[in-house]
Amino acid sequence: MIKEISEKDIEVFINGIKYYFRTSTNEDIVVETPYLTSAKQITVDDYTGIIGISGERKGFVLVTASEEMLRHLVLSLGEETATQDLIHDVVGEVANTISGNARRSFGPGFMISVPMVLQGQPERIGASKETNGYVIPSRWNTFPFQLVVALK
Amino acid sequence: MKMLIVDDSLIVRRKIEREINLPEVEEIFTAHNGQEAVEVFKTYEPELVTMDLTMPNMDGTECVKKLVSINPNTVILVISALADQATAIKAVKQGAYGFLCKPFTESELNEALAKCIAFCNELKG
Question: Cβ contacts (< 8 Å) between B105 and chain A: which residues?
């Protein structure tokens, strides 16, 4: 496997996801040890928000979580009812915020797409077989979720 | 005062609308991309706009330019996750008044909007 992401790069995203939840929900998340995986081994949960990365770096950032966690997140953000529209939207917004915030470290050449949201279990994430990504397993409240960063 | 919220995220549009706690803001309109924002802007002529940057169908940068060309006195607060300084500087050069980075707290939002409203009032003389 070709090492494409540095430890420092991963720190940027870990700090980003921690900051998102602390600022938005007033709760800290638990981040477990990240591990390297290939695109074909990435497993996704009920909803997945994906941001395409272009410019000086190429790849993607995704956040994948259960519907139950996203329902609680929507309520925690101040909504009275967690509708399907809001659940669908929030996972894309989390991925977008973390990716956009990464430009503080990577600069404006780190270009991000609008979020794409997948529901359910697609056969594969649209990434080439050669793409490797770091999985950052995390837990908010009691809910496990994953951040995956695949960059060249 | 009329205000327009432009963001492609439903949850962000609703969060901004819900958390505004400023009596000067009397009427709020929303748009989910730049193209829709221009239409709403022409119809309702809001004095204050919050603008996301990364959006489909005309992004925020392009939209800021359009709105300022229609009414140079529009006060625009960019609210974006793009956290690098170059993006904030570019937005201001194109006519935005200020920049608030996502994620934001209720008090950060109201503080930034209060500054925008003060500037709106200055422009009115």
Answer: 23
Q: pLDDT per residue over A1-31, tens digit each? A: 444 688 899 999 999 999 999 999 999 999 9
Chain A residues close to B86, C-beta within 8 Å: 107-108
Helix ranges, chain A (H): 7-25, 67-76, 84-101, 103-106
Q: How far apart (Å, rounded) are the C-alpha atoms in residues A97 and A51?
A: 10
Q: Is the Cβ of A26 closer than 8 Å to some Cβ of chain B?
A: no
Is position A123 within any domain? yes
Cα–Cα distance between A13 and A136 in angstroms, integer?
9
Flag whether pLDDT at A123 surpasses 70.
no
Q: What is the CATH number of the domain that holds A89?
A: 3.40.1550.10
Nearest CA-CA distance, residue B3 and chain A, Å: 21
Domain total of chain A: 1
> Nearest to residue A127, comparing CAs of A16, A50, A45?
A50
Q: What is the pLDDT of residues B76-95, one digit of tens each?
A: 999 999 999 999 899 999 99
State the pTM of this model: 0.94
Flag whether pLDDT at A95 surpasses 70.
Answer: yes
Assigned domain for A145 exists: no
Containing structural domain, residue A66: 8-30+37-138
Which residues on chain B are in Cβ contact (under 8 Å) with A108?
Answer: 82, 84, 86-87
A103 touches chain B (CB under 8 A): yes
In a domain, A152, yes or no: no
* ipTM entry: 0.93
